[in-house]
Amino acid sequence: MKKQIYSVLVENRSGVLCKVAGLFSRRCFNIDSLAVGETDASDVSCMTIVSTGDEHTIEQIEKQLNKKLDVIKVKTYEEQQCITRELMLIKVKYNKNNRREIMELCEVMKAQIVDMSKHYMMIQLCDTPERIKLMLQLLQSVSVVEVARTGTLALAKCMEHED
């Protein structure tokens, strides 16, 4: 099984996300992660889709995406070809015994405490998907109340001779 990242430029209009998701659903392709947002042009959005499959499946996904009328351009990346980031907000319940431990963990992981009350703390982390998973694992010993994560975002690594 191979993980592939698709950066798909699409026309920014209603129904496009549904059509792309439907393509995956109809063919039983799995979406591991999906993030969508406008680009610098308000009429164009970028969908970053992460999917896992064998060589044939990965190839079929790219071909099927390119057939969609609303798709402007499809770029594919393997993990080593791009920089990836994900955002996570995680709300934890803390007490006087684990407060310092949580704050030290945030410092080590370069996470920020963005909100706090007498018993709850909200932590923000923007990092690679692997480090997001690590942070979740490290926080399992405390009382995790709620988690919200974006999908993976990706851009090709900078090259000296880009066009």
Explain the overall architecture.
- With 163 residues, this protein is of the alpha+beta class.
- It is 28% helix and 42% strand.
- Strands 5, 6, 7, 8 and 9 form a five-stranded antiparallel beta sheet that branches. It has a four-stranded antiparallel beta sheet with strand order 2-3-1-4, covered by helices on one side.
- It is elongated and about 55 Å long.
- The protein starts with a strand and ends in a 7-residue tail after the last strand.
Number of helices: 4
Helix/strand order:
EHEEHEEHEEHEE
- Extended strand count: 9
| Highest CATH level, the class of the largest domain | Alpha Beta
What is the CATH architecture descriptor of the largest domain?
Answer: 2-Layer Sandwich
Could you give a short account of the major beta sheet? Answer: 5 strands, antiparallel
Mean pLDDT value: 94
Strand content: 35-45%
First-to-last CA distance: 32 Å
Helix percentage range:
25-40%
Q: If you consult CATH, what is the topology of the largest domain?
A: Alpha-Beta Plaits
